Amino acid sequence: MRFESLERHSEAGDGPLHRLGARLKLVATVGFVVGVVATPPGAWRVLAGEGLFLALMIGLSGVPPRELFRRWLGFLVLVGFLAALVAPGHPERERLGVVAVALAILAKNSLAFLAMMVLVHVTPFRVLLAAMGRLGMPRLMVSTLLFMERQIHILGDELGRMVQARRSRSFHRSGRLDYGLLTGLIGMLFLRSFERGERVHAAMLARGWDGTARTLEGLDDR
Predict the structure, then answer these.
(1) Angle separating helix axes 125-134 and 22-38, nearest 10 degrees
(2) I need a labelling partner for 70 at 20 to 30 A (CA). Which of 107, 146, 199, 218 fits?
(3) Residue 37: closest CA among 93, 110, 128, 121
């Protein structure tokens, strides 16, 4: 189980957005997200303009729309549930109606989510971290994000090995794990992640960890 699709597009791509500076892309994306969030419900023309601009950026990024659409569908389930809860109590409910408010919440969150997805598809994560540090983000937060990105690959591989080992010991014809077994594996993975985190922290302290992440690449911002 690996998480390589984002790295594949961000490292190998050579489109117009890939060649822009990471700080510029980060600031522009945050500005776009703030503008989308600040758009009032019912301003459909403004939302349509923001959507057209984002569609242009997606075209320049070279990211397959099918991949973005697949990730957006998973995001839509969560945001749709939240929109259904928030819309009945929204201040604009009386003027626009519950359905219009829910659709506005879905549209705004979808635009913000897709904008962030485009950013991570055209910029390697290590370069984004360097840009965050140069823009003044606290050093501890940057280091935490760096280790999180590293460990998620390790934990994903660990979960894949655990699932494969469990399947090799079962006799189900389909080879699929039921929810009871899968939740047990996930719980065991969390326990192993805590243990691994303690060992890694102790090893870092023994080697003089001072809160600064140092790599051979230097986390250069391009």
Answers:
(1) 80
(2) 146
(3) 110
